[in-house]
Amino acid sequence: MKVKQGFKLRPLGNEFILVGEGLEQINFNKMITMNETAAYLWQKVMDGQDFDADRLAELLVEEYEVGHEQALQDATMTIESWLKAEIIA
Model pTM? Predict the structure, then answer.
């Protein structure tokens, strides 16, 4: 999978929001918010390189005190959320 281009991650209190930089990315029916962990993953993969749940799990294990199984579950849920929001393909 790859991150769709044209989004900018911005801090908003204790969370982050993802905003479209071009009109084709903006859907005013939903706002994309991310917690600190999801924002960390987004920043790591926003360069356009391919990634999958295993790669995101590796990043979580490297950054946080979490086991591989839990990291893989969290990574899978994150990818599902991003797919539903149509910010990755």
Answer: 0.86
